[in-house]
Amino acid sequence: MKKILLMVALVAMGCTIVSCSESKDETIVCPEPKTINLLPTTRQPIELTTEEQQFATDNNNFALNFLKTVNDADNSGKSFIYSPLSITYVLGMVNSAATGQTEQEIEQTLGFHQGGIQAINNYCKKLIDGLPKTDDKVTLNIANAIFVNKNLATLKPQYQQDMLQYYNAKAENLDFDSPTTLATINSWANNQTNGMIDKILDRIEGGAISYLLNAIYFKADWASKFDPKMTKTETFFGYAGNTQLPLMHQNVLIYYMKNDIFSAVSIPYGNGLWNMTVLLPNEGKTTNDVITSLAKSNFQKDVYFKMLSYEVDLKIPRFETTSDTDDLEGNLVGIMKKLGIKEAFDQNVSEIPNMCNEGNLYINKMRQKAAIKVNEEGSEAAAVTVAEMNFTTSLPEEKGKATFHADRPFVYLITEASTGVIMFVGSVR
After folding, report:
1. Torsion over CA of 271, 276, 277 and 278, rounded to 10 degrees?
2. From CA 33, how far away is CA 400, in angstroms rounded?
3. What is the DSSP string of 128-173?
């Protein structure tokens, strides 16, 4: 069977928060909490149909189940960052050529159920076209590409047309035997992520028919930036031991909630449609408890909509994280199998006949690299997903005050408010 190599390549993000702080040696008097002015005239929310709203909710469930599965598979104890949405786009492109049980498994796992290829493609197109326009203070690039081995295969005209129409993915025919092909694909990833993901492939796999790639690049300033003068080096009580980290600090009016497992704040970017939600385990709880709880919940209903406006004494570390699914037990293929996609990776049963003229395909490999940077100005993030295909052989009124000091391991999500879409998930440990 001809094979598809699927690789989810990179996520990079950065954010920073600064505020007034207190140490054992000195006390800094906090000013009045900052009021964040969000200008709706520069926001363009996305309007989803009822079916698309259900897609968004259930795809978020996939994102949180992915987060739990990755967390369970990561035995390093290190921080991580990934983009489930990048995986969704690449598998959406694969699904557009799939049939039978293979199609059903992809759609069910991603949260699209029996939505069908056309409805899923329409949904992906709406996000690809609409998300970059939601806030003119946020830079967002979503790009897709298909690189085809011109020595072995040609894309079916209908598939090529659909990829361009729904995913803005232009197909490029390359000589996979040429040493320049590897550089071409890696250069595409580098360019689409503003240099945050400079390499997605280590080599061109023998017999590879095509590479399907998605890249996401996100950069945004906090709606309320942190004053670097308020950043202090303090102890971070990590699972692998205590370390000294710069903790940014500010007193600000933002959304906050707390339950029996964690407390959470929603820190807005730009004009407020994009947010980083930081979830801090309560005393006696761990990030594993937080992630397990999220995987069983409806994020919008159980977390986001339960938040109220609080005056929050906020601390969060300045940090950088890089991740690679090849470092996980079972790598990304193993992760996706655990989540429910099995046939697409099996050359004996995979049903992906509608991509290439020369035969049926299966996914041979998947990978994602990720990185995030967090600082006083805001966040920068990027993700690249690549798939290799091979042939088969056959803010409301203020309610109260809260202290939120992220000086111990925590979980975070970057989301868009009008759709509720989760773009990035990660944990600082």
Report:
1. -140
2. 12
3. HHHGGGSBTTEEEEEEEEEEEETTT--B-HHHHHHHHHHH--EEEE
Task: State pLDDT tens for residues 201-244.
Answer: 999 987 899 999 999 999 999 999 999 999 999 999 999 899 99
Of residues 17, 38, 143, 83, the one with CA closest to residue 418: 38
Q: What is the identity of the amino acid at 100? A: G
Tokens of 411: 């979980």
Judged on CB neighbours under 10 Å (0-12, 13-18, 19+), 199 is: middle
Strand duo 241-258 + 262-268: pairing? antiparallel
List Cα–Cα distances, 176 to 73, 151, 181, 384, in angstroms: 33, 7, 6, 20
Determine phi and psi for 304, rounding to 5 degrees.
-60, -50
Q: pTM for the full model?
A: 0.90
Residue type for position 325: T
Block means of pLDDT (10 residues each) for the chain, 429 residues, are 48 30 37 53 84 97 98 91 97 98 98 94 97 96 97 96 97 95 97 95 92 96 96 95 96 96 97 96 97 96 94 96 92 97 97 96 93 93 88 64 96 97 96
Triad 115, 295, 247: Cα angle to 5°: 125
Residue 155: φ, ψ to 5°: -75, 145
User: What does the pLDDT look like over 304-342, one tens digit per residue?
Assistant: 999 999 999 999 999 999 999 999 989 999 999 999 999
List of residues 6+ apart from 119 with CB closer than 8 A = 51, 55, 112
d(CA 349, CA 347): 6
